[in-house]
Design a protein that fits this description.
Layout: H1 3-38, H2 43-52, H3 56-67, H4 72-83, H5 85-93, H6 103-109, H7 113-119, H8 130-156, H9 168-182, H10 188-205, H11 211-224, H12 226-241
Helix pairs in contact: 1-2, 1-3, 1-8, 1-9, 2-8, 3-4, 7-8, 10-11
Length: 242
């Protein structure tokens, strides 16, 4: 298979998996761009922030930080707290991204919650290059956010819209991704473990502080049950092939 054909085949295989994220990012990205515009920052700033920062939650928080008194220590601590979960994402993806060569740098940079949800559970179809399959998922998700942010910035400079309540799209997006995983039998136990860990952490630590404890609890649970999950995965795959 030639290089260009290999890339096109991987793109064709990856795109359908990113459609739910496209719909979510289209709304969220545009709302972010419009919010930036409402604070006096043009579409160029929205584009630059999305390309360089590429962190939906912290970008929304950054809108407030940009309009408040300059406090770099507070901004650093807040950014680390909000994005600390990506440490767990990255560690769990080290093995899967082995052999991706120079693409690994972009895969690491552009790993977000939604992309992690796909790349950690989806396997490339037979005959499709794994590294290009994961690259296209990551690149498409990244592009959706960047383009939508820029479009929202342009639109926000022309009209004024009440944005209150539109952030529900993010919650809806994660519900769709969870249901997509639940449809595949081999992903149901990890998904159930993740849900249970999140609920326990929410009850114990509260809505403002539960994300990091939930990620730690989830990581420990998956590591402890790694052998059982692996056996279940391979047994189900073997059953499907018969």
């Amino acid at each position: 298979m030639s290089g260009n054909h290999e890339k096109r085949a991987a793109l064709k295989a990856a795109f359908p998996h990113t459609v739910p994220i496209l719909t979510g990012f289209a709304f969220l990205g545009m709302v972010y761009g419009m919010l930036m515009a409402s604070k006096g920052y043009g579409a160029g700033w929205s584009l630059l922030m999305s390309m360089v920062v590429f962190g939906g939650s912290i970008q929304y928080v950054a809108v407030t930080l940009l309009t408040a008194a300059f406090n770099p220590i507070q901004a650093l601590i807040l950014s680390l707290t909000i994005n600390a979960r990506h440490l767990f994402y990255g560690i769990s993806m080290l093995k899967k991204y082995t052999g991706t060569g120079r693409l690994k740098y972009f895969l690491i940079f552009a790993l977000c919650d939604e992309t992690y949800s796909l790349t950690s559970t989806k396997e490339p179809p037979e005959g499709i290059s794994a590294k290009w399959f994961y690259f296209w998922i990551t690149f498409l998700d990244y592009s959706y956010w960047v383009i939508a942010s820029f479009a929202g910035g342009l639109l926000g400079g022309l009209i004024r819209i009440d944005l209150e309540g539109l952030d529900f799209v993010l919650t809806a997006l994660f519900v769709v991704l969870f249901l997509e995983q639940w449809r595949e039998k081999e992903n149901r136990l990890p998904a159930a473990i993740g849900l249970l860990c999140s609920v326990i952490s929410l009850v114990v630590f509260g809505a403002d502080n539960f994300i990091i404890p939930a990620m730690i609890l989830l990581a420990v649970s998956l590591l402890c049950g790694k052998s059982r999950l692996s056996k279940q995965y391979h047994s189900q795959k073997a059953g499907e092939e018969k």
